[in-house]
Amino acid sequence: MITNTANLLTLFRIIIIPFIVALFYFPGAWAAWTAVGLFVLAAITDFFDGYFARSLNQVSAFGKFLDPIADKLIVTVTLFLLVAFDRLEGLWIIPALIILVREILIAGLREFLGPYNIKVPVSKLAKWKTTVQLVVISFLIAGEYGNEVIPFANEIGHFGLLVAMVLTVMTGWNYLKTGLQAIQNMDNV
Asked: Which of 61, 113, 118, 157 gives a 20 to 30 Å CA spacing to 189?
């Protein structure tokens, strides 16, 4: 069912993205902190959609399809915004690019394997990767206003992005190995 609680939370995560985008175009602390608040709210729904899906027996094909897409959309759109609005500059753009490349690669791998009914399930480490990405990005959205509330917020965000990048590479490599093995098995048949 598309309209169960879990799926509505996932849809909310997608619907909130344009509001976060719009807030980047407004100057001032209020816009930055409102964007942080909306992003954190969206990140919290990532936990609760899975919780409700399992606890209320609301696991659905629609949810399995949309949940990872919602995660990728909010992370990739926000990373683009951080670069476009100079909240990620210089070498700090590299971890963001690596995260984006991994997300596209794994999405493509899943899309390729789908018609063959080969699944690449989400690992526990990948769930941690998403959590770290969401927390780190929250620090970065605040930009120059983050340090006013949390000392070294930008530094926490930047170095946290390195941790997220490492987790991203590790989980991407694991998925890629699994996918390439499946592809090799198809060639051997």
From this structure: 61
